[in-house]
Write a sequence for this structure.
């Protein structure tokens, strides 16, 4: 009923920047928290950044000062601006969102993931 479609991943050199986007579509009444997670090979999925519908944000310590999460509520879209990228940022990045659907039930949805590779 709800789809999250990510874009913007790719290969970048250390110190470079990338911007990820994730658009939610479908039977949406409202989109609540939106977040980015990442999973590196052999590691558990971890929270990178989260933003509430009101714009409050929180970040993993490892990305503070380098990544910025933002959202466009009119477009049901969340962004992750990633600057000063490091090889350890290499991972599959997943969009995550709590969505109130038109039946007024809240569900958590995941995107399909987008690969970010940072070369040294």
């Amino acid at each position: 009923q709800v789809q999250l479609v990510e874009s913007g991943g790719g290969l970048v050199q250390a110190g470079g920047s990338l911007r990820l986007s994730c658009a939610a579509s479908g039977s949406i009444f409202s989109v609540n928290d939106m977040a980015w997670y990442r999973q590196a090979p052999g590691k558990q999925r971890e929270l990178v950044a989260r933003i509430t519908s009101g714009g409050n944000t929180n970040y993993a310590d490892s990305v503070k000062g380098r990544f910025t999460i933002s959202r466009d509520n009119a477009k049901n879209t969340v962004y992750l601006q990633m600057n000063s990228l490091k090889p350890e940022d290499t991972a599959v990045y997943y969009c995550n969102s709590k969505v109130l659907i038109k039946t007024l039930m809240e569900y958590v949805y995941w995107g399909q993931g987008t690969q970010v590779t940072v070369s040294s």
Observations:
- The longest strand covers residues 28-39.
- DSSP finds no helices and eleven strands in the chain.
- The chain has a mean pLDDT of 96.
